[in-house]
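User: Please predict the structure of the protein below. I'd like the answer in structure-token form so I can feed it into my own downstream comparison script.

Assistant: Understood. Taking the following sequence of 68 residues as input:
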Amino acid sequence: MIIERIEENIVIVENDNGEHFEVSKDNFPENIKEGDFVLESDDCYIIDNDKTIELRKKITELQNSLWN
């Protein structure tokens, strides 16, 4: 799942099927950012740092290929 956006105390999450849902910001770590991949664990979410880094690398490579 990926963090689509953060609105005050609500986090909009997109699941693997492209569906969006709202989750209380209290269920996430304080350092959560838009674009982070997260894993659900009980009622809490944790950042999947490896997958987040992988996605950001792919986006950077795509941007570079468009501009070069």
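That's the full token string. The radius of gyration is 13 Å.
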